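Support reply, case 0932

Customer input (verbatim):
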Amino acid sequence: LRSLNGYRATCEILQLVPSVEKFRLTLRVIKLWARRNGLYGNMLGFLGGASWAILVAKVCQLAGIEGNLGSCVNLVHRFFYTFANWNWPEPVYIKKVDAQPYPAWNPAMNHYDREHAMPIITSSVPQMNSAVNVTKTNCQL
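Our regenerated output:
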């Protein structure tokens, strides 16, 4: 069942962004930047592919709400500006779900969730922190 969760999450992200084409191109640029700067890899305490995708989707949503989706260059610039100024550990949601099963990410119920440095919450149920391995030190990079 877990293997289907990644596919389901990817399909849902594509439904939540205003322009799939601009989302995909912007995500490619951001992931390339992260790899070239040694900042890619969930097992290394950095962000993995799902986390980068959620962050790019959030920027696309914010730009779409303002009616200013613009070019991919603008989205890349907005990406760095948005998350350089994000109030971490405030969670990043691209879809908020109220009715959650017990194992979902919930800092009010689970004290371990309160300690996450960079909560980037998945859109599919149960919502989880895709950046659970990110440390406070790595978050500051």
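We compared this against your earlier run and they match. Two observations from our side: The chain has a mean pLDDT of 88. Residues 20-36 form the longest helix (17 residues). Please reopen the case if you see a mismatch on your end.
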